[in-house]
Design brief:
Elements (H helix, E strand, L loop, with lengths): L2 H10 L37 H12 L4 E5 L2 H13 L5 E5 L4 H9 L3 E5 L14 H10 L6 E5 L10 H10 L3 E5 L22 E4 L1 H4 L7 E5 L6 H11 L6 H14 L3 H15 L9 E2 L11 E5 L7 H12 L5 E2 L3 E5 L6 H17 L21 H6 L2 E5 H4 L8 E3 L4 E4 L7 H12 L4 E2 L5 E5 L1
Parallel strand pairs: 2-3, 2-4, 4-5, 5-6
Antiparallel strand pairs: 1-7, 6-7, 8-9, 9-11, 10-11, 12-16, 13-14, 13-15
Length: 454
């Protein structure tokens, strides 16, 4: 029996709860299935029956050997994967555009870090990391990394060739960890390839981002025997709450049910996407970025304003205020509309018609985009070392040339412009200032100030 069915049955029983949570299941809606670890509903931190069974179903779906439900998002998975796989002072390679949780993981584990640098296009969008870049970086370093952490797909949907990368890593006895937060839907239809979980040592995926799951639902997937399962379980005990939400776990169980018979959902989804992309040739100013399905996730709709007279932020504002359409991300010269199998044909049609109308009102132009490729960071110390130094706050303009103890990100997607332990450059400060002017959210500053080594 699944966890979902078990909770449903429990909610209908006559069992009186002299235990947590305090609402006592006396309220309607999700409260009825909000439980704690009592006999019959299992324990996420020591699963033996219904949760263990659902985790086995999850592993089968993702062609992995072990699966762990997560109720703290992919953040928990990234932290636990790095903590369990590596030891203090190990050398690891990560993508420069990794999510901040990856950076937090290497900081907490006191690791020595090197960077993989994906290409960045004219819109400032990071492309997928290539095997060639990985090989080149490893050949440049005198020391072989113990692990590599890559992101596939990227926020905007660009895939790595995870099979080739995994084969190379394993030939060199290097662990491969894949942050697949934006790819939970991969592998369930031929138009969504490059699922990492059947080749990478650890894959972390956010079920809630692209599948019908409540926010915070994710999974950690393990393939092979290179990862010590005891260490992984201990790491999850450290980073995940000791009171996991049964409402969220129920959502995962429900999602597993759907994924076991997914084809109608995915066929309709692909039909809707193909119909939407048909407007690409009808637009005179806006550009919809299209790639082959083995290169980019078609479900991540990227609309470029690069050669118009408005920014991506301004386009998002028009869609929000005039057409009541809210998009996922907006930046200097593009926005991202994130879609899933639950999007309706009507929703796609609304976006399509809105873009056609907006496009007709735009003029040709060119939006200036500060490219992070221009930053050449100078590393003075490891991230964890910078975090232990006495620090002081100062204005951005006064911080140039000093060593940062702050991580400054443009959010979303949360990739850093400035990393602790690095010298702050004019280029990085310029990007942050330009982002603020464009009304792009900047994280890591404290009332506009940045922390530097004292």
């Amino acid at each position: 029996m699944s966890l979902k069915k078990t909770l449903e049955n429990y909610s209908k029983s006559n069992m009186y709860p002299f235990h947590m949570p305090g609402h006592k299941r006396m309220l309607d809606g999700p409260y009825k299935i909000d439980m704690t670890e009592v006999p019959g509903v299992d324990d996420l931190h020591d699963p033996e029956n219904v949760i263990a069974e659902d985790q086995a179903r999850l592993a089968k779906l993702y062609q992995s050997d072990r699966a762990y439900m997560l109720v703290g998002g992919s953040t928990v998975g990234n932290l636990a994967a790095i903590y369990a796989s590596l030891n203090e002072n190990d050398f690891v390679l990560i993508q420069r555009n990794s999510h901040k949780s990856v950076y937090n993981g290497v900081t907490l584990r006191h690791l020595r870090v090197g960077y993989l640098n994906p290409e960045i296009d004219e819109n400032g969008i990071y492309q997928a990391i290539t095997l060639e870049e990985i090989k080149s970086k490893i050949e440049q370093n005198k020391e072989k990394p113990k692990a590599i952490v890559i992101t596939s797909p990227t926020y905007e949907g660009y895939y790595c060739d995870v099979c080739a990368i995994a084969e190379y890593c394993h030939s060199k006895n290097i662990l491969l960890i894949v942050d697949e937060a934006h790819g939970a839907h991969l592998g369930f239809h031929k138009c969504f390839p490059n699922q990492a979980s059947y080749v990478a040592d650890i894959t972390i995926t956010s079920l809630h981002k692209t599948l019908p799951c409540l926010t915070g639902c994710a999974a950690l997937l393990v393939k092979g025997n290179r990862i010590d399962s005891n260490r992984l379980r201990e790491a999850l005990d450290i980073f995940e709450t000791s009171s996991p939400s049964y409402v969220l776990m129920n959502s995962i169980s429900n999602c597993i049910d759907l994924l076991e018979k997914p084809m109608d959902y995915f066929e309709n989804y692909v039909d809707n996407l193909e119909d939407f992309y048909s407007i690409s040739g009808k637009l005179k100013a806006l550009q919809i970025i299209t790639e082959k399905t083995d290169k980019k996730d078609m479900g991540k709709i990227v609309i470029s304003t690069k050669y118009t007279n408005i920014t991506g932020v301004e386009l998002a504002k028009i869609l929000r205020e005039k057409y009541e359409i809210e998009t996922e991300l907006s930046s200097f010269s593009y926005l991202l509309a994130m879609t899933s199998i639950m999007d309706s044909k009507k929703g796609f049609e609304r976006l399509k018609q809105a873009l056609i109308e907006i496009d007709a009102s735009l003029q040709k132009g060119e939006i200036s985009v500060p490219i992070a490729d221009n930053i050449t960071p100078v590393k003075k110390m490891e991230l964890w070392e910078a975090k232990t130094k006495p620090a002081t706050s100062c204005e951005l303009k006064d911080a140039i040339g000093q060593v940062s103890t702050s991580m400054i990100c443009l959010y979303p997607p949360g990739a850093p412009v400035i990393v602790p332990g690095e010298v702050i450059t004019e280029e990085s400060v310029s990007i942050i200032e330009e982002a603020k002017k464009a009304k792009i959210h900047v994280t890591g500053l404290n009332n506009g100030l940045i922390c530097v080594v004292n």
